[in-house]
Design a protein that fits this description.
Pfam families: CofD (PF01933). The radius of gyration is 19 Å and the shape is globular. It has 2 domains: 3-38 and 130-335, Rossmann fold (3-Layer(aba) Sandwich), CATH 3.40.50.10680; 42-127, no CATH class. The chain is 37% helix and 22% strand. Strands 4-3-2-8-9-11-13 form a 7-stranded parallel beta sheet, with helices on both faces. The chain has a 3-stranded antiparallel beta sheet with strand order 6-5-7. A two-stranded antiparallel sheet has the order 1-16. A hairpin with a 4-residue loop joins strand 5 and strand 6 (146-148). It is an alpha/beta fold. It has helices spanning 18-26, 44-52, 59-68, 73-80, 95-106, 110-120, 150-155, 179-187, 198-206, 209-217, 240-251, 287-291, 314-328; strands at residues 3-5, 9-14, 32-37, 126-129, 135-141, 146-148, 160-167, 190-193, 221-225, 229-231, 258-262, 279-282, 296-300, 303-306, 309-312, 333-335.
C-alpha cells in the first residue's frame, strides 16, 4: 500500500513589510502557500499611481510577488527597481508598480492581473488580492471623529476605536472578496495573521464582510503573530492581549486560536526612533489577558535586531509555524 501525504495549506494574510518576511521563509517548506494581500494602502508610489489610474495600490502585492518568485535575483531586482531620475512622472516609482498597474488595465481588474503576473514571475504559491477593487480604510477614533485613508489615519496619532472598509468606486455596496479568497480560508489547515500594522495592514482584510465570516467558520487554526513594538498613531501602550482583543472584537468572536509572542527584550537605547518613526515601545506581555480570550500562547525569542530597529526573525517564526503544522499532520495521512 502506498501512502500519500497531504500537503498542508497555509494562508497568510496581511500587508506591509511583515508579510514578505514570513512568505520568504515559508517558501522553502513543503506547504501549499496562499497570500491574501490588503488592497487598502494609499501611501507612497502606490498612492500616487492610484491617484492617476483607478487601480488597487500595487506596492504590497509587488513585494509579495517578489517574496514567492523563483526567478533570478537580477529580474527581481529589476522588478523592485525604484526610479531615482528627476523625471516628474517616473521619479520614486517602483517598476513593478507600473507593471501591476498596466496588467490591471489589460485584465480589467487586479485579481486576474495578479494571477497573470504570478505565472510570469514563476510564483511558488497563490497570491490573492483581498478584493478585486480599490478599498478605502475608514477609522473612528475614541473622541468620536472619523477619517478615511490609511496614511491620514496613522498620521492623526489618535486612539483608534474601530476600522472598516468601503469601496473606492461603489460607496453604497459593501466590498466582497472573490470566491478564491473565501475558498482558500475555508480549505486552509493554518491561517496566519501578521506580523504587521494591526489597524492598517491586518484588519482591512478581515473587515471585508465575507472574509470575516469565513474566518469565523473555518476549521483551520488561526494564528496571530503579535507585533514586537507598538506603533505610533495605532497601538501605543498596547499589550499583546490588547492586540488580540481588537482583532476578536472586530470579528465579533474569539477567532484567534494561537498567538506567537516575542519575549526577548529589545535592548535599551538600541532603537533609532528617528529612522523607525512608527515604532513606539516594546509590546508588553499579558499572559492572563491572552488566556482569558481562549488563546494558546507560544512565547519565545522571535526577535531580529538590525539597522537599529526591532523586527521578527522570519526563520524562527516559520519554524514555529511548521511545528504547529507538525502537531496536526497525522490528521492528513491517507492510504490508497
Amino acid at each position: 500500500m502506498m501512502e500519500e501525504r497531504h500537503r498542508p495549506k497555509v494562508v497568510v494574510m496581511g500587508g506591509g513589510t511583515g508579510l514578505p518576511v514570513i512568505l520568504r521563509n515559508l517558501k522553502g517548506h513543503d506547504v501549499d502557500i496562499t497570500a491574501i494581500v490588503t488592497v487598502a494602502d494609499d501611501g507612497g508610489s502606490s498612492g500616487i499611481i492610484r491617484d492617476y489610474v483607478n487601480v488597487v495600490p500595487p506596492g504590497d502585492i509587488r513585494n509579495v510577488v517578489v517574496s514567492l518568485s523563483q526567478l533570478s535575483p537580477i529580474i527581481l531586482q529589476l522588478f523592485q527597481y525604484r526610479f531615482d531620475s528627476n523625471d516628474q512622472f517616473f521619479a520614486g516609482h517602483a517598476l513593478g508598480n507600473l507593471v501591476i498597474a498596466a496588467l490591471s488595465e489589460m485584465r480589467h481588474g487586479i485579481f486576474d492581473a495578479v494571477q497573470e503576473l504570478s505565472n510570469i514571475m514563476e510564483v511558488d504559491g497563490h497570491i490573492y488580492p483581498a478584493a478585486n477593487e480599490p478599498l478605502e480604510l475608514n477609522a473612528e477614533f475614541s473622541d468620536g471623529t472619523t477619517l478615511t485613508g490609511e496614511s491620514e489615519i496613522t498620521a492623526a496619532h489618535k486612539l483608534i476605536k474601530r476600522v472598516w472598509v468601503t469601496s473606492s468606486t461603489h460607496q453604497d455596496i459593501a466590498p466582497q472578496a472573490v470566491d478564491e479568497v473565501i475558498n482558500a480560508i475555508m480549505d486552509a489547515d493554518q491561517i496566519v495573521l501578521g506580523p504587521g500594522s494591526l489597524f492598517t495592514s491586518i484588519l482591512p482584510n478581515l473587515m471585508i464582510e465575507n472574509v470575516g465570516e469565513a474566518l469565523r467558520q473555518t476549521s483551520a487554526e488561526v494564528i496571530y503573530i503579535c507585533n514586537i513594538m507598538t506603533q505610533k498613531g495605532e497601538t501605543e501602550k498596547f499589550t499583546d492581549a490588547d492586540h488580540v482583543r481588537v482583532l476578536n472584537e472586530h470579528l465579533h468572536q474569539n477567532v484567534i486560536n494561537t498567538v506567537l509572542v516575542n519575549t526577548k527584550k529589545v535592548p535599551d537605547e538600541y532603537i533609532d526612533y528617528q529612522r523607525w518613526n512608527e515604532m513606539s515601545r516594546q509590546v508588553k506581555h499579558d499572559f492572563k489577558g491572552l488566556r482569558d480570550q481562549d488563546c494558546r500562547v507560544i512565547s519565545s525569542d522571535f526577535l531580529e535586531l538590525r539597522d537599529n530597529g526591532a523586527f521578527h526573525n522570519g526563520q524562527l517564526v516559520v519554524d514555529e509555524l511548521m511545528n504547529l503544522i507538525g502537531q496536526v499532520d497525522s490528521r492528513f495521512d491517507t492510504h490508497i
